[in-house]
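Please check this today:
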Amino acid sequence: MQNLCAGATVGQLQAVGNSIQGYAASTGGIPIPNNTPLVNGTTYYASQTVNGVESQTRLAVAVTLTNPPSGLPVLINTPASVCSNANSIVFSLNPVANATAYNWNNQVGQSTTNQPTTSFPILAGMTSMTVSVFASNNCGQTPTATATVAILADYALQDSATACDTLVWNGGIVTGK
């Protein structure tokens, strides 16, 4: 069994030896040109010629073709902003067809995972985090998607006020009895 990328040709089949020739059948037939596109799920046959004599037995080679990941990764549930006292930000994608890895980058570092989710820590002094991601497999990669999350300063506010009947607080009226 050989796994190749979609669009591979007979000439890209792996075989050890010299003067290797591909065929569509285990016996008889004519050789297949090396530039012939492979068909997923098909078994091809290889012979070798040594000292001008072609082998009588042909080696069967089953072929599986893999497509590159398709489509732009789509970030989901990405917050527009988080408070700076959060420990990290979680980023998620809708899964991308044919992807075997998701390659994440930002100013904190890199993360490669086989899951469409990752988390990056929030470092002291950060005011935003921009993340880029692309999906990949051994046959290629998608375009890159990017998201930016604002990191808002958190404040602890403690205040006291005294009023007789009503108090105007932050644009609203507070009444007490």
Q: What stands out?
A: The mean pLDDT is 90.
